[in-house]
Amino acid sequence: MNRPTACLIAALLTTAAQAGIDIPKSVYKADQVEAACAEAVKENKALAFVLTDPGTSCGLCIGATDMAFEKLKAHSVVVFLNSEVADRWEHIIPDC
């Protein structure tokens, strides 16, 4: 195996070992949905929900979630929902 391939494999393994989604400061969590709603009204933006497992080690899932956060923030206020929480839908329907 040549050296560049070995480095690439090591980088991928390191990335996979670092499980978890990094939630940006601009993204609200489910228990902050009222504040997210207020910002959406103030900024005249849509309210967008991203549902995923924050502890995933799937590189594709992490990448897709990061891309969703980045793309959605331009036109909406983003709220993160933890797919591992049983009652995640109970408090996400804000009155806004």
Quickly count the domains: 1
Globally, the shape reads globular
What does the average pLDDT come to? Answer: 79
Helix content: 40-55%
Please outline the major beta sheet. 3 strands, parallel
Number of helices: 3
SSE arrangement, N to C: HEHEHE
Structural class designation: alpha/beta
**How far is the first residue's CA from the last residue's CA?**
58 Å
Strand content: 15-25%
CA radius of gyration:
17 Å
Physical arrangement of strands within the biggest beta sheet: 1-3-2
Poorly predicted runs are 1-17
Give me the count of strands. Answer: 3
Topology:
Elements: H1 3-17, E1 28-29, H2 33-43, E2 46-52, H3 59-72, E3 76-82
Parallel strand pairs: 1-3, 2-3
Describe this structure in words.
The protein has 96 residues and is an alpha/beta fold. It is 42% helix and 17% strand. It has helices spanning 3-17, 33-43, 59-72, and strands spanning 28-29, 46-52, 76-82. The longest helix has 15 residues, at 3-17. The chain starts with a helix and ends in a 14-residue tail after the last strand.
Descriptive terms for the model:
96 residues, alpha/beta, 3-stranded parallel beta sheet, 3 helices, 3 strands, disordered N terminus
